[in-house]
Design brief:
D-Maltodextrin-Binding Protein, domain 2, alpha/beta, single chain
Length: about 475
């Protein structure tokens, strides 16, 4: 799959402007840990908090759909799924339609293919990759957004967030959910006990890790059982170290994975992954640790948790809430440190795509493009919306509020998750492609050349080169 080298916007943006914007976002993110000390933990402990009855006056017009039934498919589970169901419940209340959530599995394109082959596609599916949207369009499955949904999207989203949901100039996706994937969360008590401060550079991060290790706690928790977390590690190191132009070229497979810049990034990653005492459970333990557990084990166990830090996006807050740790006091966060000249800012997201073109499905897409819908889930925590019309005050703590403000302030100036831009066979399938090769690399970080060769072979096959 090929994407524009200007953050999938199809427009030329000056690199100096992009760098300045990235620096501004990173600077704003640096203020995160000063916030949130006395606020809610963002986990939605109050069952009514952010519920439909407390929403502001409607800003979106929806049709009456009494008697209509829809299915929405997504890979979301646990709290994330339950919170999204509250958004669907409000749509039901406003329209009279009945919406059923259909749990999907990764890779979602394969799941959708089986549903379509059986004659039972969902009305709408939440696709976590631009590459998946493109594949759904190429297969003739996805339907373009209607006039009302497109209008709502245009009013509430920056051009960049609109354009990553386009294929061949047509609008197919509504990026309902976004993520800031350049954050490292830490156990505040562990840092205090170790006398550690928040690092701003990679070298400082290594020094901080050593201080935590010396205090008797393993520095990092890594959810290596889920290969996507490892791609996120790589992308942050690569973007900061190689720079945005190389990042865009690698994302489009315009340069090979055997490029020296990839060698440099893998070698840098090995400074943490290759030091078994720095990763909870060592490589074998990390490869058996799923993402949710990688978070919860960082914030449980009192002063002796299994790890002092965990890397992942703003959505980590949902899992932190399960531990009863309080975001902003017990659990704090700092931006992914700069490996090169500039700290990385990597975004991700999930887009609503219509698979059965009807008044009801288009109305649901319109609803998901509205600030009304996003505000419901934003209030519940662990959620970030690229919808610029959402009032940041709805977020449940100052940490999440600052993250949301940074995302909106960035406008079109961000880098989207690299693996999510790739064909799913390479960047989005458990046990295959980039996910599998980086899991193997976590197991054997000395084999940089072998990892590069395997990544290139798999990428070439997936991109059809």
């Amino acid at each position: 799959m090929r994407m524009s080298s200007t953050i999938r916007t199809g427009r030329t943006v000056k690199r100096t402007t992009r760098a300045a914007a990235t620096l501004a976002v990173a600077a704003l993110a640096l203020s995160l840990t000063a916030c949130g000390g006395d606020d809610d933990n963002g986990g939605g402990d109050d069952g009514d908090k952010g519920g439909a009855s407390k929403q502001p006056a409607s800003t979106v017009t929806l049709p009456k759909l009494d008697g209509e039934s829809l299915e929405v498919a997504a890979v979301w589970t646990g709290t994330e799924q339950e919170n999204f169901k509250k958004v669907l419940a409000e749509f039901e209340k406003r329209t009279g339609a009945k919406v059923t959530f259909v749990p999907a599995q990764d890779p979602i394109i394969n799941f959708l293919g089986s549903k379509i082959a059986g004659g039972a596609p969902p009305d709408v599916a939440m696709l976590p990759q631009p590459g998946a949207i493109k594949q759904a369009v190429e297969k003739g499955w996805a339907k373009p957004l209607g006039a009302e949904a497109t209008k709502e999207l245009g009013e509430n989203y920056s051009q960049g967030w609109q354009d990553i949901g386009k294929v061949d100039g047509k609008q197919y996706g509504v990026y309902y959910k976004a993520a800031n994937k350049s954050l490292i969360w830490y156990n505040a008590q562990v840092f205090e006990n170790a006398g550690a401060a928040e690092p701003k550079t990679w070298d400082e991060l290594l020094n901080t890790a050593q201080m935590i290790y010396d205090s008797g706690v393993t520095p990092f928790s890594v959810g290596g059982a889920d290969g996507w977390t490892l791609t996120d590690w790589f992308e942050n190191v690569y973007l900061s170290q190689a720079g945005p132009e190389k990042y865009d070229q690698l994302a489009q497979h315009e340069i090979k994975w055997t490029d020296p810049s990839v060698k440099d990034a893998l070698t840098t990653l090995a400074e943490i992954w290759g030091k078994k005492d720095f990763v909870a459970g060592g490589a074998s333990g990390a490869l058996q640790t799923e993402f949710p557990a990688s978070v919860t084990q960082t914030f449980t166990g009192g002063e002796q948790p299994k790890a002092g830090m965990v890397y992942e996006g703003d959505f980590v807050q949902v899992n932190i809430a399960e531990t009863k740790a309080k975001v902003g006091t017990d659990a704090k966060v700092f931006p992914f440190p700069a490996v090169g000249d500039t700290a990385p800012v990597v975004s991700g997201g999930d887009a609503a795509v219509v698979f059965k073109d009807s008044e009801a499905s288009q109305a649901l897409a319109t609803w998901l493009a509205s600030p009304d819908a996003a505000a419901i889930q934003a209030k519940l925590g662990g959620f970030l919306s690229p919808n610029k019309s959402v009032d940041a005050s709805v977020y449940p703590n100052d940490v999440q509020k600052k993250i949301a403000e940074a995302l909106v302030a960035a406008g079109d100036d961000f880098r989207f998750d690299m693996s999510d831009q790739a064909p799913q066979a390479f960047g989005g399938t458990p046990g295959k492609g980039e996910w599998k090769t980086l899991q193997d690399f976590l197991k054997n970080p000395k084999d940089v050349a072998g990892a590069q060769a395997k990544l290139e072979a798999d990428a070439a096959a997936a991109y059809g080169d």
